[in-house]
Write a structure and sequence with these properties.
single chain, alpha/beta, 2,3-Dihydroxybiphenyl 1,2-Dioxygenase, domain 1, four-stranded mixed beta sheet, about 15% helix, about 40% strand, VOC family protein, VOC_core, Fosfomycin_Res_Enzymes, metal-binding, Glyas_Fos-R_dOase_dom
Length: about 120
């Protein structure tokens, strides 16, 4: 029917929480500390739409390589204006790749990354 959410394990919970809320602007739905797992679980939304579960675990293994390692290649967000979003993220200290044009759709997009080097794409809608 639709994707319910995407789960991300981060290496530094406070850094990633700040990144996804303060820099990307996602809204906190709920934050839970699970003592038995020494783990936080942060549910995040775009507007009212639940999209990301952010987890912390003690000593998670590093991502093997980027972006062509087996598994999730990148996480893509749709935006109204790619240029405006890129400038906003740069003003918040992110390094953003140049804007590219999708050869099949003609839409603009660019990549940046989260604190754990997960590639993030911003795509024109």
């Amino acid at each position: 029917m639709k994707i319910h959410h995407i789960a991300i394990i981060c290496s530094d919970y406070e850094v990633s929480k700040k990144f996804y809320t303060d820099i990307l602007g996602l809204n906190i739905i709920r934050e839970v500390y699970r003592a038995e797992r020494q783990s936080y679980k942060l549910d995040l939304a775009i507007g009212e739409h639940y999209v990301i579960e952010l987890f912390s675990f003690p000593d998670p293994p590093a991502r093997p390589s980027r972006p062509e390692s087996c598994g999730l290649r990148h996480l893509a967000f749709s935006v109204d204006n790619v240029g405006t979003k890129r400038e906003e993220l740069i003003s918040k200290g992110l390094i953003c790749e140049d804007i590219r044009i999708d050869e099949y759709t003609g839409k603009e997009f660019f990549f940046t990354q989260d604190p754990d080097l997960l590639p993030l794409e911003f795509y024109e809608m």
